[in-house]
Structure formats: structure tokens, C-alpha cells
Amino acid sequence: MIYLNGKFLPMEQATVPVLDRGFIFGDGVYEVIPVYSRKPFRLSEHLSRLQHSLDGIRLQNPHTEAEWADLIERIIELNEGEDQYLYLHITRGVAKRDHAFPRAATPTVFMMSNPLLTPPGELLVSGVPAITAGDNRWGRCDIKAISLLPNILLRQLAVDAQATETILLRDGLLTEGAASNIFVVKNNLLLTPPKDHRILPGITYDVVLELAKAHGVPHAVRDVSESELRTAQEIMLTSSTKEVLPITRLDGQPVGNNGAPGPVFHQLNQLYQAYKQEVMRAHVPH
Ligand code: PDD
Predict the structure, then answer these.
(1) 143 and 8 share a domain?
(2) Is there a contact between 241 and 210 (Cβ–Cβ < 8 Å)?
(3) Which of 6, 107, 125, 226 is surrounded by the fewest CB atoms within 10 Å?
């Protein structure tokens, strides 16, 4: 069951007019929210980022936070599975094709749920391969825009090379993955680039940094150079669907001494899994 413009209905019955600006221009924003044990994870943080994305494209939020929370609760109820991932999508609505904003259009609001399939245990043991590519995206990567053509092309490079992710470099610096944030360990220090217009402000990124701080994992948020990436002891990616995943090969070369997941990954992954359990136990439905 999906949600479309005020109605819950089976996916097969849901249609959108061809003049929807999401279809015509990719004029919209989205969110991906993980659901564990039927409870949304970090909901208010995801809704704040949604607001940031909507502000970034000058689109009024069609719902209050309480309304979103209700809709989300209902979509979880209507779908099977303890762990789900929710996709929320808002476009500027249906209007005659013209680049400029339509004077009056009602935003299209779409929500669906899919089973959340986090990486299997073997991948946490072996790690995954990644490649690098130049970051040729636009200058507002902090907006979670549905127009994802650059990300799609960059991610496909990884698939073509039998790798899991493409790590992006801009002006000699690490930005992020095509669909994830990136952390490296260099001189026993966990490093990740700052949240600015060059990267998506990841919710998982925030959780990892909070855990590092709370548990005394030495870390710094600062620019990371290409050479630091290439000579890192450890590399890992974070995202709502992949959680914390170790990258053990970069452009065909082993990462660190032995191309195996390192101690910082193991510690952060353990902390992340424990934190998830704790939050889910403490979760009080609104
Ligand atoms: N993508 N950077 C990019 C470009 C992303 O697309 C994502 C997530 C992230 C990680 O953000 P978070 O930790 O909040 O999931 C970083 C989602 C999962 C997607 O598009 O499916």
C-alpha cells in the first residue's frame, strides 16, 4: 500500500499525471527513512532535513511534522515487515510545462514502504569494493533532490566495475559517495568532510559522529584530501539503508594493510547496532 495525495491505495492503482513537474523536470525532493521493529528511526531529524530540502527548492511543506508522523505511522501499519524503508517524495505538482514555478499548483505527495534489507553479515566481514570518480554534481548537494541523474551515472560506474559504491572527489577533496557519506581512518583518527553544500547531510553520518564523540573515538570533521583517502587505514560508508559498511578495496587496491575491515569500523558498527536497539526499546509512539 502506498500513499498518494491524501489516499492510501495499492501501488498498481496509483498514477500521476504526465505533466507532474517531478516527471517533467525532476522538480521535487525526497527522504528515505529506515523503520526498525515497525518504528521510524530518527524521524524528527529526517523531517527536519526534508524541511531543509523543501526550503532549498522554495516549496512549502504540505504537512506539519505531526501530520507527517501520522501518515508515516499509517503507512508502516499498512505494510508488512518489521524493518521497512520509507520513501517520501514531494514534487511541485502538475502544471503546463514552463521552467518557472507555476503560480498555483498543489504539490504531489507520495510515500511508499519497501522491506529494509541491510547488508548481509558476510559483507561486514569482507567489506566491499569501491571506485573513485570526479564529483560532477551541482552546487547544492545538501538538497535531497529527486533529480538524481548525476548520482545515477556515478553509481552505475561502480556497478560496471563490480564495485558497491563510487566515492566522489572534487577539487582534490573527498566529498561523499554517490548514495552515501564516507568516513576514513588516517593516523588512527576518524575523518569525514564537513556538512556543507558539497554533501548531503546524512542522518547516519550524524549518528556515527555522535557515537564517536560519546565513546571517545578520536575523530575530526574537516576536509579530507584525495591522498588521505588513498592512503587511509580504513574507509567506510554510511547510509540509512546500508548503515555502516566497510570499504576494503579502492580502485582495485586493498585498503589499509590487508584490505580487511579495521578496528574503528568494528567499534562503530557495534555501537551503531547497540544504539539502534536502545532507541527502539525506548521509542514511545507519539
Ligand atoms: N541515500 N549522500 C547521498 C548522496 C545519499 O543519497 C545518501 C542516502 C546519503 C546518506 O544519508 P542518510 O544517512 O541520511 O541515509 C549521503 C538514500 C539512502 C537513497 O537515496 O536511497
Answers:
(1) no
(2) no
(3) 6
Residues with CB under 6 A from ligand 1: 32, 151, 176, 179-181, 200, 202-205, 238-241
Active-site entry in 144, 186, 242, 276: 144
CATH of the domain at 79: 3.30.470.10
Substitution site in 200, 204, 241, 245 for ligand 1 pocket (most atoms within 8 Å of beta carbon)? 200
Q: What is the pLDDT along the chain (286 residues), one digit of tens a residue?
A: 999 999 999 999 999 999 999 999 999 999 999 999 999 999 999 999 999 999 999 999 999 999 999 999 999 999 999 999 999 999 999 999 999 999 989 999 999 999 999 999 999 999 999 999 999 999 999 999 999 999 999 999 999 999 999 999 999 999 999 999 999 999 999 999 999 999 999 999 999 999 999 999 999 999 999 999 999 999 999 999 999 999 999 999 999 989 999 999 999 999 999 999 888 888 655 4
d(CA 208, CA 46): 15
Report the separation in Å between the CA atom of 27 and the middle of ligand 1, taken as the mean of its atom positions.
18
144 is an active site residue: yes
- Domain membership of residue 284 (yes or no) is no
Residue nearest to atom 11 of ligand 1 (CA): 202
Question: Where a domain ends, among 70, 88, 115?
Answer: 115
Q: Supply the pTM of this predicted model.
A: 0.96
Q: In sequence order, what E strands does the chain have?
A: 2-4, 7-9, 28-36, 39-40, 84-91, 108-115, 128-134, 165-170, 173-177, 181-186, 189-192, 219-221, 234-239, 243-250, 253-254
In a domain, 243, yes or no: yes
Ligand 1: residue of 42, 45, 240, 272 to mutate (most ligand atoms within 8 A of CB) is 240
* Dist. CA 242 → ligand 1 center (Å): 9
CB distance 181 to 195 below 8 Å: no
55 and 182 housed in the same domain: no
Domain assignment of residue 175, given as a range = 121-279
